[in-house]
Amino acid sequence: MQHIRKIETEQSLRDARWNAARGLADCAAYMANEAQRMGALGFAYLSRPEHSVRGPSWLRGATASVEAHYRYAREIMGITDRDQLYA
Description:
The protein is an all-alpha fold. The chain contains three helices and no strands. Helix 2 (24-46) runs antiparallel to helix 3 (56-77).
C-alpha cells in the first residue's frame, strides 16, 4: 500500500490497470495500450543519435519491429486503414 501521494511508478500503474481487468475486452484494451506504448518507445529509440551509424538492414528490421507493435494494437482494437485518416 502506498501511503505517500503521487509515488506511483509507470510499472505500478500498468499493474493496477492489468489487475482491474475483469473480462476479455478489458484484457484486449490493456494489450492494445501496451502495444501502442511499446511502439511509441520504439520510435523514440530509433531516433536516438547513436543509431545513425547503424546500417540500413538494422534500421529496416528495427522499423519493422516497431510497426508490428502498432499493427498488433490496431488488430486488437479492430481498426482498419479506412478508419484512420492518416493511414
